[in-house]
Amino acid sequence: MNILFPLSITLLFETSVYIILNRRSVKLFLIASIMNILLNVSMNLILSITRTPDEFFVVVAVYEVCTVFAESIILWITMRIKYWKTLLFSFLANSTSFWVGVVFTAYVYPHKTAAIIVCSVFFALYLLLFAFVFATRKAHDQNNGNDNDDRGKKGEKQEEPSGRAG
Asked: Most buried in the list 8, 17, 58, 154, measured by CB within 10 Å?
């Protein structure tokens, strides 16, 4: 539960921020999810070996700053978005999940049953967000003729049958 609770907050809130800021991209959703799982789990494993509250907060502060830059570089490389935008996206996403995590850790986490329920709800909402992004993106692509059929690539001019022989 020590890793699942912060992971559920991170996945739901950070991925939501990325999707809101970049128009429901399935690729972005998947990249943000993988990146957040790896970075969040690694941070929480490191935090599990801290010995004092002071050490804990220093590790969180340093890791969060490093995470903002790591996520922005990953998004810049994989999504081909301007770096300043990825830096802003990463800062907003991480700030959102950090402050939501602070509030939930203070008020919900001490009550184990409530924490399990909230964690389960967050994971369910995350899965619904994925379904929504995937469904709306697929519908958008089909409406714009990007559904990988034989119509050719987007922007290619299609030949009209002329009805005349050679």
From this structure: 8
